[in-house]
Amino acid sequence: MALDTIEFEELPPPGAPDIDIARAATMRPILPLAEDRLGVPAEALIPFGHYKAKLSLDYIASKADAPKGKLVLVTAVTPTPAGEGKTTTSVGLNDGLNRIGLNSMVCLREPSLGPCFGMKGGAAGGGRAQVIPMEDINLHFNGDFHAITSAHSLLAAIIDNHLQWGNEQDIDPRRIVWRRVVDMNDRALRNINVGLGGVAHGVPRETGFDITVASEIMAILCLATDIADLQRRLGDIIVARRRDKSPVTARDIEADGAMAVLLKDALQPNLVQSIEHNPAFIHGGPFANIAHGCNSVMATKAALSLCDVVVTEAGFGADLGAEKFLDIKCRQSGLRPDAVVLVATVRALKMQGGVVKKDLGESNPAAVECGVVNLRRHIENLQKFGITPIVALNHFVMDTAEEIAVVQQVCDELGARCTVAKHWSEGGAGAEELAQAVKDQLEEATPEIKLLYPDDAPLTTKVETVAREIYRASGVDFSSAAAHSLEEFTKLGYGHLPVCIAKTQYSFSTNPKSTGAPDGHTLEVREARLSAGAGFVVMVCGDIMTMPGLPKRPAALDIGLNEYGDIVGLA
Hints:
- This protein is of the alpha/beta class.
- It is built from 19 helices and 25 strands.
């Protein structure tokens, strides 16, 4: 279907529930769409029904030497309850790029069931800038998260079974670091006891659950370059220490092969489409507040071999997602963005300026003036990496010219091009100005991306660099346990790894209530976790939890089936 034949008048009006808009859209069968838009033959795809498919690993390998397209990173200002629309903008930008004649596709992360049934909702875009089938993408999709959870659980089971049957590796049960995971917000599982009930039921010990998106296996899936690299990384996972304190890996207890088997199909990127029938890879789903927040390297590289332009997003604000995209994903994969889009909304900036959510509908240029310091900080931070972002002001109907002018002025001062984007209400047509700005940027000289720290810097220095340069902290307070762990990781030969800082997404500091652009605060690192297979060290900061809890009234209470068996209430 040609772009100019998309009939938006057949869709529910903007403002209708996203699920209603998505369900009303006409989808093209995925096999002919892949052939027409990407040149991918049907035999290279593994269909999951009519509108979803996985791209085979063999076909991806066959495109290794194909010319590569340009990479566009979409990131955002600090999240607020008002919503910023980073995924919506990514989808809308991709639709806009195709409208102005570029062969573009978007690469996104898969949504987690935790926020879908919790508070945040799904992650398939919104309004008329969505990827579809929306219900499938937001729920079980093609089974990737189940495969990750199963592989993680298998390793946990093998560890406890190893203890039960003689403990040949001399594992110290007190020093097992491999926890369990489930893809649901469930605070009651954060700390548990296992192996209770007597000798026949295992060795008693303390452990706990994280959410699946925080699993090291999720990170491994997203950073692996092929099936051999996947299995190597799985084998490198450190699960425990022996009584002599030497590390025990998944390879040592012979779990890596079976784990790779469970993940073989999940490694294949998932192909779907937008409402405007533009192709999208949705693959992998680590959160950016507790993990590295990027879709898979496999999907990104495959897309670059198939298209002129690839749009991808990094989770939460630029202080988390973009920093990790650059310092972790780019460092490991060799990828570099050719342009960066920084998403902001007038509503979010008003909240950063102190306005409560119920008052956001009132024009308040003064509040935008106060809150725009957050946007300024993110622009300046991205410039430290060697690239000035294009600011996409995700438009809401209540935004006033005076409020928009405040944002434009700050962008002008910092040399950042600012465009008002209306993709939520108008689809790709509403993102054409943004798409043209990106096109113009891509036609200029490729920026020289500078990573924030060198590989050979000490782990503590890497954390201090991110804290100082990106969070504008005055210092870092390492707990005694975290400091000891970092010394130990360095002695084991992992001091060269990048750091993945797990902290609240709602502030540059570790205090989620500290809005705007706080500085002079202290980054509190309470725990350090070694992800040897993924290839980074996680710093757990402040009160951040790797297993979220549900809010007082979770979204799950409003989700169900109607009399026709259709899903209702999914956002």
